[in-house]
Amino acid sequence: MLALLSLGAVAENLTIAASRFGIGTKTVLLPDPTQPNLIMQIRLQAGQTEIDPLWRHIPLRHTNRRVHFRGPKMTDAERSQLDAAARTYSACQLVWLDEPNRRRQALRLMRQAETERFHNRILHEELFSAIRFDAGWRSACSEGLPPGALGVEPPLRAFFALLRHWPVMRLANLLGAHHMLGWRACDLPCRLAPHLGLLAVKNTDNQAVFDAGRAFQRLWLGVISQGRVFAAHAGLGLFALEGHKRRVFRQACSTNLAESWKASLDGAIPLMLFRIGRAQPLSIVAGRWEVGNYLGNNK
Ligand SMILES: Cc1cc2nc3c(=O)[nH]c(=O)nc-3n(C[C@H](O)[C@H](O)[C@H](O)COP(=O)(O)O)c2cc1C
Question: Quick one: average pLDDT of 283-288?
Answer without folding.
Answer: 91
